[in-house]
Amino acid sequence: MRPIRDPEGAELRHLASACELTGKTILEIGCGDGKFTRQYAGASKKIFGIDPEITDLRTAKNDMNTSEYHSFFIQSMGERLPFPSQSFNIAIFACSL
Predict the structure, then answer these.
(1) Whole-prediction pTM value?
(2) Ranges of each domain in the chain
(3) CA distances for 50 relative to 10, 17, 78, angstroms
């Protein structure tokens, strides 16, 4: 497993202070190799990470127990989401813009 980019959890604390993650269905756009996805997954009901880079998505899947965290990784661009409207409670763009 690769080191977590935010080992102190500052990113997660900041996000949690802005909105409640517990029990939510979350979309992370530009999830990359899943470094932040792992942090959000523990609180969420389900988390979906999308990224255009298949190699990063493979790393994310390999580094995370996707069934334990109800996480899903999908190759997609953020401009055209492959989900119906209203599928998520929260959308996150951690380092994608």
Answers:
(1) 0.82
(2) 11-81
(3) 22, 24, 7
Tokens at 4, concatenated:
């977590």
Closest CA to 93 of 24, 11, 28: 28
Q: Are 30 and 93 in contact (CB under 8 A)?
A: yes
d(CA 35, CA 84): 26
pLDDT digits (tens, 9 = 90+) for 18-38: 788 899 999 999 999 998 888
Residue 62: how many other CB atoms lie within 10 Å:
11
Range 43-59 burial, b when 16+ CB lie within 10 A, else e: bbebbbbbbeeeebbeb
Residue with the larger pLDDT of the pair 69 and 11: 69
Q: What is the pLDDT of residue 13?
A: 75
pLDDT at 89 over 90: yes
The CATH superfamily label for domain 11-81 reads Vaccinia Virus protein VP39 (3.40.50.150)
